[in-house]
Each structure stands twice: as structure tokens, then as C-alpha cells.
Design brief:
Low-confidence stretches of chain A: none
Order of helices and strands of chain A: EEEHEEHEHHHEHEHEE
Structural class of chain A: alpha/beta
Structural class of chain B: alpha+beta
Helix content of chain A: 25-40%
CATH architecture of the largest domain in chain A: 3-Layer(aba) Sandwich
Number of helices of chain B: 10
Largest sheet of chain B: 4 strands, antiparallel
Distance between the termini of chain B: 23 Å
CATH class of the largest domain in chain A: Alpha Beta
Strand content of chain B: 5-15%
Radius of gyration of chain A: 17 Å
Oligomer: heterodimer
Number of helices of chain A: 7
Mean pLDDT of chain B: 84
Strand order of the largest sheet of chain A: 6-7-8-3-9-10
Order of helices and strands of chain B: HHEHEHHEHEHHHH
Largest sheet of chain A: 6 strands, mixed
Number of strands of chain B: 4
Chain lengths: 216, 298
């Protein structure tokens, strides 16, 4: 489902990933671990088509991302749910509007949007909070809202960057259980974290990065 | 994002910010109304100029004491000139009748004891050359019983030239002001893009294509342009009506009528649609530039 072949990613003045090759199969549950600056976020962004690799190839859903144009890459991103480390919620829009954004982009009808947003909010336990503005939500609720937005397009791949960072233990446990439940219905889950307790609870396979290289 | 949704979103934004919309539309409308008004003035002047006699001719006015016999003697002398194409006699009685019918001076003329107008000849010429015209006038001025030789077609021809020049100047000014509209709309859309930068970036992260991002802004530009075009036509119509009112008061004292010729429906529609097109162009340029900047600064 996701295949990295000799992937290198360079930014001005530094190399975030170096010659990384690995594969994540359909329905797998994979945790990406490593210290800060190890290249976890870069790996996830490459898998989601948010960035393009400097060298090597990334194949997702059978498509080599390097060969895709900007429009095709954007369309591919609609099939991948991404939970951002900094949430990337729109603070001038309520919970419903935030979750509806990917559906708006995909051109769904208002009725279908309404139905899917409610279903997503229900899955993350935020049904009834549609009108709440993000600022009125707790850290855990914001994270769940971000997950609701990531799953609203019913993606086959769900990627989360440090979804339990800055959360208390109880909230972190609830978030990990949420990802596990998605994986149990066949969604491929790829999560980066350096929180050992969460990683243990998540289970599945681990990919470990150190200074941009794959070490395990 | 579908076209209908994008258009709906743009309309919603226009309605949700009435003050910002009105001020933006007014700024653009004034920029459009200026050349529209100039076009109205030119059209009115050119309509008047079209009714004027611009064929080269001179009027030869005889002295008031010239008899019918004196006038008859003059005709072969005028026809004999090589630059004279045709000669038409206008008897003083005929001239008086024409004056009565074409002006509001009938009562005043009727009150006069005698006809104040002289016999006259209108001579169509084969030349507009100034030197030959001067020589001709000097020759005919010396003929017996001739009082004045007047070449009064020159000013109307000059007016026609000015109108043609005005048309060209207006086209040039129109192009500059169209560019100004593009820049104004572009700037306003750019501000919106910057205000909504976060939303745009998140939309792109969740799968919005460049076209998806651009579409609502393009509709916004089209809407702003269309509204501004309609407002410009409205403004021009108001000013034209006021000008017509003032002109009527002014020209009535000259016993003449000058009408402000406003745009026909087709022209007004063209202006509104043209403004919408300019709004679209401005939005396209602006959004494209900002999206490239976003891409360059992740």
C-alpha cells in the first residue's frame, strides 16, 4: 500500500531522511518511532503526498508520487487521512465546518456532508459538539476533532503525526484506542510517536528512525 | 469544490461583508464610470457633429440693398470659378422662413418691420485647401454687391476631427482604467487570499487542487466586477441625467437643443460583462501569484 524505495529528503542545510526503504502493507498498523529530528514527520508527509521526495520513490495506492502532477497528487491526498501534530484546525470555524472541509474540497452535496460529518463526529465521541468552536474544546477534544476530519472522507490509509503528544494519559489512551478501532475495520494506520506507553497500547509493527536513517 | 458551491461561497462572502463589498464595488465603479461618462459626452458631441454640414462650402452674403436682379447677375460669376462645384441661391425671404421654422424666434422675427436677412449663395467647393480658400474668398469679396464671404464649415470639420481624436484618447484612457480595475480587484482579492491563507493551506493539505482553491476567488472577482460594472452604468446614468438637466437650462437660452445621448442597453450590458471579465482576470492573476508564494514558503 505504501512503499518507500531509497528515499532521501533534503531541506536547505540538512538531510531529514537518508536512503530509506520500507513497505507498509494494506491493513497494517505501523508505529514510526525515533527521537525528535529523527525524520518521523518527514516520512509521514512523504507517505501522505504532502511533500515530494528529493530522491528515491514513494508509491502509494500503486501510484508513484514522483510521477504525479500537482492536481493528481492533491486528489490522492483526499484518499489519505492525516492527523497533524499541530492539529491545523481553523479557529474561526466550528467543529462541523472543520470536519466538513475535506468534503467541501471533494465536492460533496450539503446533505451528504451533513451525514458524513455527523458520522465522523460520532466515531470520535464529539457528536453534539458540532457548533463548538475549536477554542472551546480541550486538547484531547481538539485532537479527536482533527481525527474526525481525517476520517470523514473514509480513507483507506490513516496517518497521524504525534497524535498523543501534549495529552494527558487518559486522553492519550482514548486516542490510541480510536486508531486501533479504525485499524480493526481494515484501515491502514501509520502513527509516529515517542510516547512508549501509547506505542505499546497501539501494538503492531514498528519502524525506527535515527538521524534520518532507518535503523529498525 | 464544484462551481455551484464556489459561486455560492463567493456570493455568501459578498453578502456577509456588505460594507467591505460596497466600498470595494464603489472604488471599482468610479474607475469604470469615468471612461463611461467620457464616452457618453463624446457620443453626444459626435451626434451633434454628425448633423453639421462638413462638406466644403462657403456662404456668399449679399448686401442688404442688393436687388433680385443684382443677385441673378452674381450667379454666373460664382459658377465660373474653377473651385465651385455647385451654386445654390437662397433668397432672403426663403432664409427668413427657414430661420422661423428652425428656431424659437418666430415671434421676434414677425415683429420686425422688414426682413433683416440678405440674399445669399451657398457654393459647394471642390477644395478644402486653406490657401485656395483664402484666394477664393478674397476674389468673391470684390464682386459687386457682395457683403461677406464666410467659410463656416471649417469649425464643424475641426469639431469632427476633435471628436475622432477624443475617440482615440478615450480608447487609450479606457485601456489604462481597465488595467486599473484589474489591479484594484487583484489587490482586494489578494487581501482576501492573505486573510484566508490558513484555510487555503489546510484545504490544500486535505486534497484541494489549485483550481479548487482558485475557484471561489474567481467567482468573487467576477461578482465584484459585475456589481461594479452595473454600479458604474448607474453612476454614469445619474451624472448624464444631471448634465442633461443643466444643458437643457443652458441651451434653451440659445434657442437650440443639445441632448446627452446615453448608452443603449447593449453597450450598458457590455460594460457590466466587461467589468466582470476584468474582475475575473484580476482575481486569476492575484490568486495565482499568492498560491505560488504559498508554495515557495511552506
Amino acid at each position: 500500500m505504501i512503499q518507500f524505495s531509497a528515499v532521501t529528503q533534503r531541506y536547505p542545510g540538512r538531510e531529514a531522511l537518508r536512503d530509506v526503504s520500507c513497505e507498509i502493507g494494506t491493513g497494517e498498523r505501523v508505529a514510526v518511532t525515533g527521537h525528535s529530528g529523527a525524520g518521523k514527520t518527514t516520512l509521514l508527509k512523504l507517505a501522505a503526498g504532502i511533500e515530494r521526495a528529493s530522491a528515491g520513490s514513494v508509491v502509494v495506492h500503486g501510484q508513484n508520487l514522483a510521477a504525479l502532477g500537482e492536481t493528481a497528487l492533491a486528489v490522492l491526498r483526499r484518499r489519505i487521512g492525516f492527523v497533524f501534530q499541530d492539529h491545523k484546525l481553523l479557529f474561526d470555524r466550528n467543529a462541523h465546518e472543520n470536519v466538513a472541509l475535506p468534503l467541501q474540497v471533494s465536492g460533496f452535496t450539503r446533505a451528504e456532508m451533513q451525514r458524513r460529518v455527523r458520522a465522523s463526529l460520532d466515531k470520535v465521541g464529539l457528536l453534539g459538539r458540532e457548533k463548538a468552536m475549536p477554542v472551546a474544546l480541550s486538547g484531547g477534544e481538539q485532537q479527536r476533532l482533527c481525527i474526525a476530519r481525517a476520517i470523514v472522507n473514509r480513507p483507506a490509509i490513516l496517518i497521524a503525526d504525534e497524535p498523543t503528544g501534549n495529552l494527558d494519559a487518559e486522553s492519550a489512551r482514548a486516542i490510541v484506542e480510536l486508531f486501533s478501532s479504525f485499524n480493526q475495520v481494515g484501515v491502514t494506520v501509520l502513527i509516529s510517536s515517542h510516547d512508549e506507553a501509547s506505542l505499546e497500547r497501539l501494538g503492531g509493527r514498528r519502524i525506527t528512525l535515527a538521524q534520518g536513517a532507518l535503523v529498525a | 469544490m464544484l462551481h455551484a458551491q464556489a459561486a455560492g461561497a463567493a456570493l455568501g462572502r459578498v453578502v456577509a461583508q456588505p460594507l467591505a463589498t460596497i466600498s470595494a464595488v464603489l472604488v471599482i465603479a468610479i474607475a469604470i464610470a469615468l471612461p463611461v461618462l467620457a464616452a457618453v459626452v463624446l457620443k453626444s458631441v459626435s451626434t451633434v457633429a454628425a448633423g453639421l454640414d462638413t462638406d466644403p462650402h462657403v456662404n456668399v452674403y449679399l448686401a442688404l440693398d442688393a436687388s433680385d436682379e443684382d443677385a441673378k447677375k452674381l450667379a454666373p460669376l460664382l459658377r465660373a470659378h474653377p473651385d465651385a462645384a455647385s451654386v445654390r441661391f437662397v433668397a432672403r425671404a426663403e432664409a427668413l422662413q427657414e430661420l422661423k421654422s428652425t428656431t424659437h424666434l418666430a415671434e421676434l422675427l414677425a415683429s420686425l418691420e422688414r426682413n433683416p436677412l440678405p440674399h445669399a449663395y451657398t457654393v459647394r467647393l471642390r477644395t478644402t485647401d486653406a490657401a485656395r480658400l483664402d484666394a477664393l474668398k478674397a476674389d468673391w469679396q470684390k464682386l459687386p454687391k457682395v457683403d461677406q464671404v464666410v467659410a463656416d464649415f471649417e469649425w464643424s470639420e475641426r469639431l469632427g476631427r476633435w471628436v475622432r481624436f477624443g475617440d482615440r484618447a478615450l480608447a487609450a484612457v479606457g485601456i489604462f482604467l481597465a488595467l486599473a480595475v484589474v489591479f484594484i480587484v487583484g489587490h482586494l482579492i489578494r487581501l482576501q487570499v492573505l486573510t484566508r491563507r490558513e484555510e487555503i493551506q489546510v484545504s490544500q493539505l486535505v486534497g484541494a487542487t489549485a483550481a479548487d482553491v482558485r475557484r471561489p476567488f474567481l467567482y468573487h472577482g467576477i461578482l465584484q466586477g459585475l456589481l461594479a460594472g452595473l454600479a458604474a452604468v448607474g453612476l454614469a446614468a445619474l451624472v448624464s441625467a444631471w448634465l442633461q438637466y443643466e444643458l437643457r437650462a443652458l441651451t434653451s437660452t440659445y434657442a437650440a437643443e443639445f441632448k446627452v445621448v446615453f448608452l443603449d442597453f447593449g453597450s450598458a450590458l457590455t460594460i457590466a460583462l466587461g467589468a466582470a471579465l476584468l474582475g475575473w482576470v484580476g482575481a486569476w492573476v492575484s490568486v495565482g501569484r499568492e498560491l505560488r508564494r504559498f508554495a515557495a514558503r511552506p
